[in-house]
Automatic annotation (TrEMBL):
<comment type="pathway">
    <text>Amino-sugar metabolism; N-acetylneuraminate degradation; D-fructose 6-phosphate from N-acetylneuraminate: step 3/5.</text>
</comment>
<protein>
    <recommendedName>
        <fullName>N-acylglucosamine-6-phosphate 2-epimerase</fullName>
        <ecNumber>5.1.3.9</ecNumber>
    </recommendedName>
</protein>
<comment type="function">
    <text>Converts N-acetylmannosamine-6-phosphate (ManNAc-6-P) to N-acetylglucosamine-6-phosphate (GlcNAc-6-P).</text>
</comment>
<dbReference type="GO" id="GO:0047465">
    <property type="term" value="F:N-acylglucosamine-6-phosphate 2-epimerase activity"/>
</dbReference>
<dbReference type="Pfam" id="PF04131">
    <property type="entry name" value="NanE"/>
</dbReference>
<dbReference type="InterPro" id="IPR011060">
    <property type="entry name" value="RibuloseP-bd_barrel"/>
</dbReference>
<comment type="similarity">
    <text>Belongs to the NanE family.</text>
</comment>
<keyword id="KW-0413">Isomerase</keyword>
<keyword id="KW-0119">Carbohydrate metabolism</keyword>
<dbReference type="InterPro" id="IPR007260">
    <property type="entry name" value="NanE"/>
</dbReference>
<dbReference type="InterPro" id="IPR013785">
    <property type="entry name" value="Aldolase_TIM"/>
</dbReference>
Length: 238
């Protein structure tokens, strides 16, 4: 069975500390390796991880297919923006390299196709992270082995609360390569919805792997329900 076949109709768990939280205590490769091992025990068929150190630690801890990326910078084309970043991801042990395939400029002025060639040259596969149908179609022409909806909602304007199931549907209708649903999958209903929309696999991140994000999300929901600490105090409850 190929690496991609092993992900068919399965859940991939993205093990990454929160990028906007430099002091996230989960920012530790040994911790991420444990989180990945727990996710695999829970049924994840693959792991997605950022940076050579985390990728190497996770590679040593689990045997499932590993999607690696290398985030560089904080704005624009961040996910594995150059061939040099991609080569480090493969060398750290990733089977598949996730690469930004939006049309935003890359720090070295080269193209997605250049990175795809470098990844294939090292014997790994390329997952194109896109935000639109057109980017997905262009990425496949440029050599992508699979396409993920990872960047939908992150290239302009406010980030929407839920996943982009419509983009999954449109990509799956047009592409013959696997389409991975990724980005803000938080519930079983959303994951099931992505499979129904034609997803080959679904990637879930913070809702599984980040106690910091899960705690904030839970408390935001309590506040939205009008029962945050201030409201409860004002009611004189408890
Ligand atoms: C936009 C971007 O840079 N996404 C990144 C891609 O690798 C990660 O920061 C996310 O954790 C991952 O996509 C899954 O995240 P969630 O399931 O929590 O949305």
């Amino acid at each position: 069975m190929t690496v991609l076949d092993r992900l068919r109709h399965r859940l991939v768990v993205s093990c990454q500390p929160l990028p906007e939280q430099p002091d996230d205590p989960m920012r530790d490769s040994a911790v991420q390796a444990r989180v990945a091992a727990a996710a695999v025990l829970g049924g994840a068929a693959g792991i997605r991880a950022n940076g050579p150190a985390d990728i190497a630690a996770i590679r040593a801890a689990v045997e499932v297919p590993l999607i690696g990326l290398f985030k560089h910078g904080t704005a624009g084309c961040v996910i594995t923006p150059t061939a040099a970043h991609a080569e480090q991801v493969v060398d750290a042990g990733a089977d598949i390299v996730a690469v930004d395939a939006t049309d935003r400029p890359r720090p070295d002025g080269r193209t997605f196709a250049d990175t795809a060639r470098a990844v294939h040259g090292r014997g790994a596969l390329v997952l194109a992270d896109v935000s639109s149908l057109d980017e997905g179609l262009a990425a496949v022409d440029a050599g992508a082995d699979a396409v993920a909806t990872t960047l939908s909602g992150y290239t302009a304007g406010p980030v929407p609360p839920g996943p982009d199931l419509d983009l999954v549907t449109r990509l799956a209708a047009r592409l013959t390569v696997p389409v991975l649903a990724e980005g803000r999958y938080r519930t079983a209903a959303q994951v099931a919805g992505a499979f129904r929309a034609g997803a080959f696999a679904v990637v879930a991140g913070n809702a599984v792997t980040s106690p910091l994000w899960i705690t904030r999300h839970l408390l935001d929901g309590v506040a939205r329900a009008g029962m945050g600490p201030d409201t409860v105090d004002a009611r004189g409850a408890g």
